[in-house]
Design goal:
Helix content is 42%, strand content 16%. It is of the alpha/beta class.
């Protein structure tokens, strides 16, 4: 999904971009670290609410994918969903899963969900609220839906941003890991799944992506803003993390291969996961050119929840571009902020 360092160096020399290459201002929104657990962190963004200001609703917890860095949601000034949510007056928290160590190969799917549960409870405790809004991105959307199904009384509003729910509609990725030719156990038995292993799969979805990036390089030479955007996105895309082996095993076998989540046969933390238990307002956000999570895989959430307050938000772009692309600040950010502002104000209970 990203150009190799050799290509980047070559492009930089040919375009002149290498002459002055300041590091991009990544994750610019000020934050406090509220909790630590293993390599995971819970952040609360500073400036959300003045100490003496009235509360404007239940807190909002952002749950990113486990295999990409969290700050794609706070990439740079002008391309930050976090900044938009904070600017709307929401009390915003974020779970940073961290980079797993070798010993985390034994971190299972239940362990991941238990950690998410503890971070949800810590968010509520810090905010003094009995409920929380959750926005999950990519795999974080899948995990958030499972948590909400197991703990419906905790969740005031749930947004699934490009997270697969019906894995039979997962497109090329579902085909790629079909059990007839893909052995998840063989992969997981070797230890944590390295970033380059997963990137190879994503690259197979768009084999001409590297060439397309090179073709676009002339436009970057004369556009400083485009250069800043490009460098920030490349820095994030190159900052990949491994997938804990045991959790990967369950994710591929139970969800991608057996599609147990929508079938109602997925079990987590010793219980059946019933999406119909989700009775809070639910939002599905889909990108029209998403090949990682095709729109139908994400909107399936709304077909299985137990609430009539369901909304689909369709935005332009691919799986990542929809979140940080040029139109995100105009279309995605204000719509998400408005949806949560309304739902979390109505669903707030404080103590």
């Amino acid at each position: 999904m990203n150009l190799s360092p050799i290509w980047l160096d070559l492009v930089g020399e040919l375009s002149g971009m290498a002459a002055a290459r300041p590091p991009p201002a990544l994750a610019p929104t000020p934050r406090d670290t509220i909790a630590r657990e293993g390599t995971a962190r819970l952040y609360r963004f500073v400036g959300t609410r003045a100490a003496d200001a009235p509360r404007r609703g239940a807190p909002l917890l952002l749950v990113p994918s486990m295999i990409n860095r969290w700050y794609v949601m706070d990439l740079r000034p002008g391309a930050s969903l976090v900044a938009a949510l904070v600017g709307a007056g929401l009390d915003v928290f974020c779970l940073d899963w961290g980079a797993p160590e070798d010993e985390d190969r034994y971190l299972g799917w239940d362990d991941v969900l238990a950690r998410l549960g503890r971070m949800v409870r810590r968010t509520m405790r810090e905010a003094g609220s009995d409920r929380v809004g959750i926005l999950g991105y990519c795999m974080g959307g899948t995990l958030s839906a499972i948590h909400a199904a197991l703990n419906p009384s905790q969740v005031a509003a749930l947004a699934n941003l490009a997270g697969p729910i019906d894995f039979s509609k997962g497109g090329a990725l579902t085909h790629m890991v079909d059990h007839r030719w893909f052995d998840a156990d063989a992969i997981a038995d070797a230890g944590n799944v390295a970033p380059h292993q997963m990137q190879a799969g994503f690259s197979a979805l768009r084999p001409t992506l590297e060439l397309a990036k090179l073709v676009s390089m002339p436009d970057l030479v004369s556009d400083p803003a485009a250069q800043t955007s490009y460098r920030a996105l490349e820095a994030w895309a190159s900052d990949n993390i491994a997938f804990p082996a045991d959790a990967y095993r369950t994710y591929i076998k139970d969800l991608y291969q057996d599609n147990r989540l929508v079938a109602g046969t997925h079990r987590a933390l010793g219980r059946a996961v019933e999406l119909g238990n989700i009775r809070c307002p639910a939002l599905a956000i889909v990108a029209d050119r998403d090949q990682i999570c095709p729109p139908a895989a994400a909107t399936a959430l709304l077909e299985h929840v137990g609430t009539k307050d369901t909304t689909t938000l369709r935005v332009p772009g691919g799986h990542v571009g929809a979140v940080v692309g040029g139109r995100a600040a105009r279309e995605l950010y204000p719509a998400v902020a408005a949806w949560f502002t309304t739902r979390l104000a109505a669903g707030a209970t404080h103590h």
